[in-house]
Amino acid sequence: MRHNSHTTMEDMEAIVYLFLGVWLFITARRRKGITARRKVITANRNVMQSRLRISRRNAEEADERVLEVLQRCRDYNRNRLQRYSKLRRRGPCVWMLDRATEWWSVIVPSFTHTQWVDNFRMSEETYTYLCNKLRPAMERQDTTFRECIPLKKRVAIALWKLATGSEYRSIGHLFGVSNTTVCRCVQDFCAAADFVGTGINSFTRPAEVCRNGCLH
């Protein structure tokens, strides 16, 4: 009987120790798991904080770059406005293609009476009279962008075209003007001669002169 009771007590102690060991094991595992989870949470928190700091730093750098770009744009616009203001304060400039005009400005003034008749089919006196008659219809004014072609030169261009029938390009090289200017001078001359034709005996049929391109 004593032997059985002694065995029962030992079994009870073994069971208690077993439960105690299991409880300690489970508690240790739980504490270890909690510690590991805390470490993971701490690591994740550190990573998130690091990413947040990097994001804030990048955002600040982006803001600084945007402000720098805006400042550059303001400086650029200010400089453009200043340059534009300086350009506006300048006087009007005259622009035109530089062409050779020595023939008209140097050689023609030295023409004799015979040379005038041979080249322009009229004397210099008749040419001057013709310019005075056509002045109200053909004379142009200088603009802020370019100087106009003088009246005498416009009349001479038209007379040369009508007298010789040369090409616009050749006449343009001769007088130092463009092909368009030669054509416009001829058209203006014919229209002016038609308008003032009652006082010009040399041009009885200006429309026919324009069509044929030569004097009769």
Overview in brief:
The chain crosses the membrane at residues 12-28. With 216 residues, this protein is mainly α.
Major sheet characteristics: none
Return the domain count. Answer: 2
**What proportion strand?**
under 5%
Shape estimate: rod-shaped
Helix percent reads: over 70%
CATH fold label of the largest domain: Cyclin A, domain 1
What is the CA–CA distance across the termini? Answer: 166 Å
CATH class of the largest domain: Mainly Alpha
Compressed to H and E, one letter per element, the order equals HHHHHHHH
- Give the count of helical stretches: 8
Low-confidence stretches: 201-216
CATH architecture descriptor text of the largest domain = Orthogonal Bundle
Number of strands: 0
Please state the oligomeric state of the protein chains shown: single chain
Q: Round the mean pLDDT to the nearest integer and report it.
A: 77
Radius of gyration: 52 Å
What this model shows, in words?
- With 216 residues, the protein is an all-alpha fold.
- The protein folds into two domains: 1-90; 102-212, Orthogonal Bundle (Cyclin A, domain 1), CATH 1.10.472.
- Helices cover 75% and strands 0% of the residues.
- The protein contains eight helices and no strands.
- The chain has helices at residues 2-89, 102-107, 113-120, 124-138, 151-164, 168-175, 179-195, 206-212.
- Helix 5 (151-164) crosses helix 7, helix 6 (168-175) packs across helix 7 and helix 7 (179-195) runs antiparallel to helix 8 (206-212).
- The termini are far apart.
- Mean pLDDT is 77; it is low at 201-216.
